[in-house]
Structures are given as structure tokens and as C-alpha cells.
Amino acid sequence: MFMQEGGDVMSAQQLFDTMPEKSLVSLTAMITCSAKYGELGKARVLFEEMEERDVVCWNVMIDGCAQEWDAK
Questions:
Q1: C-alpha 33, offset from chain centre
Q2: Distance between CA 53 and CA 51 in Å, rounded?
Q3: Helix, strand, coil share of the chain (percent; to 5)
Q4: Pick from 38, 43, 45: nearest CA to 67
Q5: 62-to-8, 20, 36, 43 alpha-carbon distances in Å
Q6: pLDDT for 3-39, tens place per residue?
Q7: pLDDT tops 80 at residue 52
Q8: pLDDT of 3
Q9: What 8-state DSSP symbol labels residue 22?
Q10: pLDDT by residue (tens digit) across 57-71?
Q11: 3-class DSSP string for 57-69
């Protein structure tokens, strides 16, 4: 996925915002992107709004929290 390669985060967000239905995969991708670029609050909002969560999205949030803690 282009976001993981340092792609255009704003374009990814714009595309995500236009999606009529957001899947588990698309939500997890945006959570990953937000957490990776230091927007853990945004990632958490997306995570909390998810109707379904799997081990991947949980791991993304755990990793994001750990990265933020290491940065402090």
C-alpha cells in the first residue's frame, strides 16, 4: 500500500473520506497511517468508531501507543 511507502497521506485521507462504506481493511489502513505519522488521537477516534475489530487493528493501536510513548 502506498501509505506504508511514505506516499501522499492527504490524498489517502481524501479518498477514504469519499468512501460510502468503510471496510475493516480500509479503516485499519487509515489507523495505521494516522498512527505512523504521529496522529494517534485521530487513529484512536477511527478505532473507537469501528463496529468490528480484529487482531490487526488492535496491534496497530498497541504499536502506535508504544511508538508515542518511546517518543516521549
A1: 5
A2: 7
A3: 75, 0, 25
A4: 38
A5: 24, 28, 12, 11
A6: 445 567 888 889 999 999 999 999 999 999 999 888 9
A7: yes
A8: 45
A9: -
A10: 999 999 999 988 776
A11: HHHHHHHHHHHHH
Contact 49, 21 (CB under 8 A): no
DSSP per position, 5-72:
GT--HHHHHHHHHH-SS--HHHHHHHHHHHHHTT-HHHHHHHHHH-S---HHHHHHHHHHHHHHHHH-
**Which of 43, 1, 52, 48 lies closest to 23, judged by CA?**
52
**Amino acid at the residue 35:** A
Place of cell 484512536: 44
Annotated domain spans of the chain: 24-72
